[in-house]
Amino acid sequence: MCGIVGYIGHNKAIEKVISGLESLEYRGYDSAGIAYLNNNKINIIKEEGKIINLKNKLDLNINSNLAIGHTRWATHGEANKINAHPHQVGKITLVHNGIIENYEEIREKLINEGYKFKSETDSEVAAALIDYYYDKDILKAINKATKEFIGSYALGIIVENDSNLYAVRKTSPLIIGCGKDEYFIASDVPAILKYTNNYIALDDLEICVINDEIKIYNNLKEIKKEVQIYDSDESSITKGHFKHFMLKEIYEQPKVIKKTIESYFNGDINSLLTSFPKLNKYNKIHIVACGSAYHTGLIGKALIEKYADIKVEVYIASEYRYNKVFYDDKTLVILISQSGETADTLAALKKAKQDNIDTLAIVNVYQSSIAREAKYVIYTMAGIEVAVATTKAYSCQISILILITIYLAYKNNKLTKKEINNIYQDMLKLPDILNNLIKKDYTKIAKNIYKHNDIFFIGRGIDYYLSMEGSLKLKEISYINSVSYAAGELKHGTISLIDKNTPVIAISTDNKLYDKTISNIKETKARGAYNILISNIENNEFDNLILIPKFNELLTPLLSVIPLQLLAYEVAKLKDCDIDKPRNLAKSVTVE
Ligand code: F6R
Could you confirm whether domain 2-237 is CATH 3.60.20.10? Predict the structure, then answer.
């Protein structure tokens, strides 16, 4: 949430910062701004809306070797030019990602000291506090101010009459990109990939000072940190021949699911037992996550309970933190997160840790906060996901949950080595099956539903959990109000909303529940609904059938989600929505 980028080096700083911001635009796009040093003077330019508006106001060729930039997802104060970053107070100019929770208190104190504020933001207050403590030693001032902040922050700072770039973080992510004779600071790796794969991950409260070299301080003492190499290139952050990142990422699923599975499992259960943390002792699992990751948790629950016979409870992270939860030393808390930075999930993780409960993170972003905080980590291998609506990370999370299911089922004597090897043989068939499903044409069905204001998704059991994802995908990118219901629950109230031609999308892949689900669809058909059935059983009684292959039940959720993703995509395309950057959203939700 909010993207920050900074540059110092021998090249054109403005151009580099804008290019970095463009790759981070998925983090927020309410307004954008840049501060750059030119002829020893700090210039600030800000614009409302997307980065293109800012870019149109800038001369990218201006001679500058030091700049900081920001793309905003508004938290404190509306999305306007005044609240946009960078903020300048006294000698300090900064960009900020995160939330300073005690900013009102600090603001009061500074107002009493004579400071005046122009914006409604906590970020301007952060700049003012550093300025307040700045006498001769900027390092001391940053150190003192950041110790006073409660909350989360990644800050990129430039200072009047000073040629250095400064950076500091707590909880919010920040990396330092190390190019040839040039350095970057950035909220995420995509901002630097065009220029370098080398980076340093800053830890909480470390302050970085960059000029011709990088110096990092912890509590004002210089420390050494290793430069790491990010294993990916620029192609992962460009659309290639695809119209949208979302479509590209849907197409990448066969490859990344295979990569995720093969990173841990080769058909022999021992490969899984040795590559995963030891999970033998747990007899109760809590899965905690937000949004789509929460939906994968529900799929995980259905699979683990069915195959491994272990009780799983799934919680929305923002609720988990404040509810009374019941666990003991045999409980494992699994946190699922693509970004690894989601504030609610991170807070839930910290709660479990405080109670001395073992935590396992399923995370896509290497060394993200959740990955670093958890006792155990299993990485999904989705690669960089740029579209705000998750697709490939969702599927990779399910892949890991399938592997956890196999692990636990084997340990609980519910699956034999032979059965496990058979599952693996089916896993090998996944890429072809998924590719065939992806290549199907979903536009005809999309054309029949995209003008509706309400769309219903129904299913039973695991298909209900999938329908939740289908509904979320549709509403977040097409802005159509859609809800998902357990198919059997409709008649207890919601069926009153079904009117002539209301689209009802039903998923039925669990063949034991097939007849029951079909009856529920017919109940809506009898009331005039326009029915779309996604199933692995041929049935032409309804308006549309999306037939998916009959396949290994454990792997079937990976198949069923493809039509849901592509249907949402095609509907949003027909509505001419900004598919990769839906309104009001941001990819990495670092506020609670
Ligand atoms: C929906 C979507 C969100 C995320 C949620 C959690 O398409 O992307 O619902 O799943 O914000 O984000 P992570 O996985 O980064 O914790």
Answer: yes
